[in-house]
Amino acid sequence: RKEVEQDPGPFNVPEGATVAFNCTYSNSASQSFFWYRQDCRKEPKLLMSVYSSGNEDGRFTAQLNRASQYISLLIRDSKLSDSATYLCVVNLVATSGTYKYIFGTGTRLKVLA
Amino acid sequence: GAVVSQHPSRVICKSGTSVKIECRSLDFQATTMFWYRQFPKQSLMLMATSNEGSKATYEQGVEKDKFLINHASLTLSTLTVTSAHPEDSSFYICSARDPRDRGSTDTQYFGPGTRLTVL
Q: Which of A25, A34, A95, A99 best probes binding to B when mutated, by most B CB atoms within 10 angstroms?
């Protein structure tokens, strides 16, 4: 089983639609959680951290369920510019004592005009 | 957020040559940097954690002698791919943690990546 699992998609949605992505992780000792966005042939960019109480940033809402080891991202009122791959990232404490990121394979989103 | 740069952005080399990639934190000092590799249509895979002034910690399956990491200063880490072969062709991305970030989120900031093509 992969440490972080995501539906690869692609999700093709019309402009203005609401779309939700899910992610599950296997290590219950995971410390913190993020959603990153990656455009084609570019580096990942932080979209938002995910907090236990859930958090919102404009059109984006992230939720965490530690009991189910599940993270979600909701995008409302999709824009063409939201087209990208969304990476679910889990932060673990490595044996060296430093933190390390574990990436999901990403979910591709394409917003259509 | 913090800025991380990488150089070169793209490199094409012949099989058997060595390639050095630099990763710099531009507006902060990074005691820890990370090196990732991403193959087409796959996710980022952590190769190693680079620690300033000490040896890098490599992930399982990553050859230390092939991927040499040097973190000589608080703003620079280098990855050298020695005797590169076509199967080493990939997108190499570094990241760094900004110690000025407070709280438990431990965010990493990524460089723009280096696309390596080995002929």
A: A99
pLDDT at B100: 76
CA–CA separation, A80 and A97 (whole Å): 41
pLDDT over 50 at B104, yes or no: no
Which regions of chain A are under pLDDT 50?
Answer: none
Hunting for tokens 């409302």 — which residue is that?
A76
* Residue B80: C-alpha distances to residues A26, A43, B35, B49, B83 (Å): 33, 20, 11, 14, 9
Strand order in the sheet with A55-57: A4-6, A19-25, A70-75, A60-65, A55-57
The number of residues in chain A equals 113
Strands A70-75, A19-25: pairing kind: antiparallel
**Interface of chain B toward chain A, CB-CB under 8 angstroms:** 1, 32, 34, 42-46, 49, 51, 57, 91, 93, 95, 97, 104-113, 115
Contacts of B69 in chain A (CB under 8 A): none
Residue B89 CB-density burial (10 A; 0-12 exposed, 13-18 middle, 19+ buried): middle
Nearest to B49 among A42, A91, A100 (CB): A100
